[in-house]
Amino acid sequence: MKIAATLLFSLFCAAAAPPSEIDALVDQARALPGEFAADALIRLAGADKLAESRRIDLLEQAYQRAGDAQQPYKRHAAVNPPGYPMGFINRAYDQELDGLSLRLRAIEAMLPLDGRKARRMFLDIGTLRLPQATCEDYLVYEPSRFYAVLGRVAAETFSPEETLRNEPFRLLARFTGTISSAVEVAPAARAIATARVQDGEFQALVTAFAGALGAVSGDDRSFTASSQAGGQIQALVEECRRRKLSPLPLIEGFRLYLVDNLSGKRCADGELAATAGQSFGMAASPASQPIGDLVTYFNNAIQVPPIQMIQPDEVAPASVEGKVKLAPFCQDSDCQDIGAQYRALVFNSDNLPHPPAYRDSDEFRVKLRDFLSAMASWKDVNGVAAADLYRAKAGVFSDLFNLVPSGPLQDAVADAMLDYLNQNRLQAEDAIQWFLPISSLIGRAGMATSLKSLAEKLRASHDPIVAFYARLELAAPRPADRIMPLL
To answer: Which residues of the chain have pLDDT under 70?
Structure first.
C-alpha cells in the first residue's frame, strides 16, 4: 500500500497544476477560514513552477492568515481514559492547523527562500506563554515544533559576520532561557543540546535554562504529560561533558524542577497517563512511562555529587485532587448495538478474527449493508456532545476502510462516510477535529485508483472546503507519509 501510494504521489507531482490553475486555487484559498486559508497557501507555495518571489508572497500571506485560526496552539492528549478516542484527537492536532503550527510551517518553508525574512517572522511570534492546564483538562500544549524551528533559524539565517557577533546565541538565549511550562522542557533542552555555538555561549545557555527550569511548577497535568524530559536533560548533560563544561547547574535545576512538581498539588487521575487509549474497539499505542520513574531515572542516570539524590520524603504530594472531566460515552443502546455489530464484522462467535476470505462472502456483505444502515440511523442522544458522536462515527468509518476489500464494498463505505461528513456541521465548534476525517478521505481517494469515483464526488461536494481541498490534492498533492498518519 505504501509503495503504491508513493508511486502514485510521484505521478501526481509530475502532473502538477500549471500556474494558471494555481492562481485560481490561490484566489479560492483566500476566501476560506483562517486555518484552511493558511494551510492551502503554504501548500500552494511549494509548487516548483512558481517564481521565488511569488512563493515568498504566498508564505507571507499564509503567516498572516494563521492568526485567524480557531485554535492558537497544537495540543495532545495528556490522559487516556479507556474507551475515549484520544487517538483521533491527537491525529486531528497532528494536521498542524493551529495558529502557531501554521506560522512555523510558513517559516520553515521560507527558510531556503529568504532566511532573514524567516527570522523576522519567527521573532514576531515572540516568547511562548502557554496557559496552564488544570486537572480537569485532558489536553496539554505541544510546543516541540517551535523549538525545532528556533534551532533551524539560529543555525541557518545568520551571516558569518552576525555569527561572530554572537547573534545566534542571543536568539537562542531569548527563548530557551524563558520557558514557563513543563511541556517546553524537553524540546528546549533538545534545542540547546544541538546548538552550534561556542563553549562559553553554550554554558550560558545551559545556566539560563537551568534557572528557568527550577521555576517551572504548578501544572501537574503538563508535568505528568512530559515524562520524556528526563532523556533530553540527560542528553544535554552529556553534551556539557563532551564540551568539558560543568553540568552541575543543569542537574541542580532539574532536581528542583522534579521536587517542586512532585511535592506540589497532584492530579488524582495521574495513572491515566500511563494507560493505553482505545479507538472504536481497537487498542491505541501506549503512552509515556509513569512519571514516578523520573525520580529513579534522575537518581540513577543524572545525579552526581555534590548534588543529592531525591529522597522519598521530598516528593510527597502536598495534595491529590482533581480529575479530568469527560462525559461518559456509548452508554445508550444505539451506540452499544453499533459496537456489537462492528465486532461481528471482525470476530466470529468464538471471539476469533474472521479469516480474510470471509470479507468476500455474502454473509459479510449482508452484515456490512445492515451495519451501514445502522450507522445512518445513529443520531445524537441526550447528554452526548456532538464532537463525541462525530469522533466515534468518523472512527468507525476509518476502521471500516481498513477492514473491507477494495471495490464495491469500499465504495459503499466511502459513500456512507461522505454522506455523513457532508451533513455534519462540527466545523463551527472545532474545525481541526471536523477536518480530520475529510482530509483522510481526500487522501485515500488520491492514493487509491480504485476510489476514482470518490475523488470526483469530493471535488463536486457542496461544502466549499471539502470541494476546494479535493481540487488542491490534485494541484499540490501531499506525499504518502503525510497522509498515512491521518488514517
So the answer is: 1-19, 274-292, 380-384
Q: Cell numbers at residue 45, please?
A: 507555495
Q: How open is the CA angle 224-229-234, to the nearest 5 degrees?
A: 145
**Partners of 76 in the β-ladder:** 140
Distance CA 481, CA 43 (A): 15
Which three cell numbers mark 352?
A: 476469533
- Radius of gyration from C-alpha coordinates of the chain: 25
Backbone angles phi, psi at 58, to 5 degrees: -65, -40
Convert the pLDDT of each residue in 300-320 to its tens digit: 999 999 999 999 999 999 999
Q: What is the pLDDT of residues 319-342, one digit of tens each?
A: 999 999 887 777 778 888 999 999
For the chain, give the percent of residues with pLDDT over 70.
Answer: 91
Per-residue buried b or exposed e for 26-39, using 16+ beta carbons within 10 Å of the residue's own CB? bebbeebbbbbbbb
Residue 389 confidence (pLDDT): 87
Tell me the whole-structure pTM to 2 decimals.
0.89
Q: Return the pLDDT at 17.
A: 58
Angle formed at CA 121 by CA 119 and CA 123, multiple of 5 degrees: 70
Q: For helices 199-213 and 248-262, what crossing angle results, to 10°?
A: 20
- Number of C-alpha atoms within 13 angstroms, CB side, residue 266? 21
C-alpha cell at 177: 532561557
Residue the block writes with cell 450507522:
375
Residues near 446 by beta carbon (within 8 Å), at least 6 away in sequence: 8, 12, 455, 473, 474, 477, 478, 483
Rounded (10°) angle between helices 144-156 and 115-125: 140
Task: State which amino acid sits at residue 416.
Answer: A
